[in-house]
Request: fold
Amino acid sequence: MADIHFKPDAALEAAKWVEKVRINPGNFADSKKFNIREYTDAEYAAEIERIRERFAPLVLVCKERGIAMRIGTNHGSLSDRIMNRFGDTPAGMVESAIEFARIARALDYHDFVFSMKASNPKVMIQAYRLLVARLDELDRSDGGGWNYPIHLGVTEAGDGEDGRIKSAIGIGSLLADGIGDTIRVSLTEDARHEIPVAKALAEIATPHAPAPALEGWPFDPFTYTRRASQRIEVAGVPLGGGEVVRVVVRRAVFDKVAHKLDGLGDYRPEVVFEDAGVVEIDPTDGPSVARVNALDGSRLVAVADGCALPVIGAHRLLAKVLDERHPIMLKDTLGGGSGDFLQNLLRAATNLGSLLCDGIGDAVMVQGEEAPGQSLRIAYNTLQAAGVRIFKTDYVACPSCGRTLFNLQETTARIKVATSHLKGVKIAIMGCIVNGPGEMADADFGYVGGAPGKVNLYVGKTPVKFNIPQAEAVERLVDLIREHGRWIDPQSAATN
Reply:
């Protein structure tokens, strides 16, 4: 498979030799210079015609040779034209892909798949859901045959547990809803480490319900809004009502770490389950739900272990039938876990992350992983990856590929050593320019390969330092963070 950016001629040549071509609608024939411009309808139509002229030859070669294509939109590389009309949104991602699909269909070419990748799992989930809804709508209104296969991926997921958790939130939650035909886990590691994670996700995230079952659930599947609840105090800890999502542990877990709480840093238990007065119910049991809704005041409510529903579906139903005033505690399993840490991590991230991205949940409890320290790490890192509680430095780092202009694994490790104490700062580490500026739209600072041995530094999506020798680039990144008032010394961070 050939993955082509910027060069339609390169895609045309590659299509003569490979079995599949991936093109990115954001940069195949469009530009991305972050220009602001208003397009009239006539100007917009003229741009679509220009794209057709550039894209049609590739479609015809693929059709003649009988090879496949992926129309792969990236959140980080939407064209200026799409950005100016739709903004940096899931809707813009979907429309960008649909424009190219219409051209392919007009030439009676149908051997293509879609992807809607983003480094932010919330954006990625919303984009794929919106794509499915749009394809279903077109299937009904535009002659049928619009339900093409879908390829899932969280781009620039990073490495280690963080990369695996972010991938599980995005890919696993969509698979659980019946969306997705192929998957790619993108880790900033040797590519062989991606395969076990992908296989485990495919096994864990068996569809719980077809995608249309999202209709009628108590959240908007296309935009994020946190479920409303009343603020209460649980064992002296404020919870619900807009408070940060809390981490709950059972007494047995707390007792195992009680002697080293100071050493746990930001990964401490906040609430002990047995002290919290949690009300556990089966959301399918109408009388039990009615009794909780009739209570005076608000209580922390959870799904009872042993509920026959899948974890995600059980919690969605609980959010639907429970009065909004009651905060909800999420569980990663409604029974036991397994002895395999990777399985437990991916299952917890899939189940908890999916619900958090739906806007459901005021507290989380990981009970599928027995090791106390690991279960706490899973809980906190899932909150961070889902974007609902930022407590450490956040990294966006792409996987190694043929376009990379420096050793991503070594560079990412060096940057983390220098910056991992900067809570709440988001740093993007990009091997090349393809997705760099766009994926850094959410980042505070960016480190991007500009040429062999040279690095460009960004503030947000704006390049500010150019052609820095790689040997100096990490130090210069630290200087840039300091210039913008976001730097604190590691010793100061440790005492805060």
